Amino acid sequence: MGGSAANLQQLAQLETLPGCAGIKVFMGSSFGDLLAEQDDLLRQILQNGKRRVAIHAEDEARLRQRQPLTANDVHNHPVWRDAQSALLATQRIIALAEQTGRPLHLLHISSAEEMAYLAAFKHRVTVEVTPHHLTLHSPDCYERLGSLAQMNPPVRDANHQQALWQGINDGTVDVIGSDHAPHTLEEKTRPYPASPSGMTGVQTLLPVMLDHVAAGRLSLQRLVDLTSSNPARIFGLNGKGRLAVGYDADLTLVDTKASRTIDNSWIASKALWSPYHGKTVTGWPIATIIGGQLVMHSDKILGKPAGKAFCFNSA
Question: Which residues pair with 104 in a beta bridge?
């Protein structure tokens, strides 16, 4: 549930609705009325409810100040939405969380500065990174993909990417999330900065991360922690995140040696494109089982949807 001034007084109730993972706050410009940039408003949001709050941390005041730096060139996206704007917002929200006692989940961390800062607040904060920030880097991605590589916070240079990997290796990072945003090619190819930020990611998360496993950047067990065990623990998902008696039989079987090439024609999202089009990876999901039922095998969807709302602990 998006937290904002519009629903401030209802947040404690909304976060307990069936299937709701909690509250998400955009400190940097996104869409609609979901922007929450002032400290007073953010403090009130943190005071209304108990569950962990997910945060998109970019400092809106700095973004407005630096917006002219885009010069209508997507190569300048990480110049406009620079690492300092992310760090400032992260520092502000952690200070407010320390005051209010509210736990936080910092989403799609993209900079070395944030990663170094967050390491000292693991008692209060859990941390997410995305496959995009771990795999793509500037300026290469903007030269190859143009606005298809545009996301918020931006994909940054290789030095920032290296720091994210260090965060995975030293335990600062808890979760890998897709940050899936299914904008169509027609939308994404509008002249920058009118092109929307975000890219597809759900379907490619596992193949791309298995390729990193094959390259020795992390272990298969660490990948399981980042994509399954830790999200279930952090958000209190009942019956998920483990293969154990009494847990839902949700699992994906993978071939760690399979070589495949990601192609836009394979993408099931309405967006019908991927920033990894043409990329050959080692490691591929072969079958998916949900509630003990086989629902995908060899890239084919089987049966009819039989999903149900997740159940969360009240804490």
Answer: 53, 125
Positions marked active-site = 179
The C-alpha torsion from 117 through 212 and 260 to 306, rounded to 10°, is -60
Q: What letter does residue 248 receive in the DSSP assignment?
A: -
The residue ranges of DSSP E strands in the chain, in sequence order, are: 23-26, 53-56, 104-106, 125-129, 175-176, 251-261, 280-290, 293-297, 300-301
Half-sphere exposure of 178 (CA within 13 A, CB side): 16
Q: How large is the average pLDDT for residues 210-220?
A: 98
Among 45, 43, 32, 39, which Cα is nearest to 5's? 45
Starting from the edge strand earliest in sequence, which strands make up the sheet with 23-26, in order?
A: 23-26, 53-56, 104-106, 125-129, 175-176
* Rounded distance between C-alpha atoms, residue 88 and residue 111, angstroms: 12
The model's pLDDT over 267-311, given as tens digits with 9 standing for 90+, comes to: 999 999 999 999 999 999 999 999 999 999 999 999 998 888 899
* pLDDT tens profile 135-160: 999 999 999 999 999 999 999 999 99
**pTM for the model:** 0.96
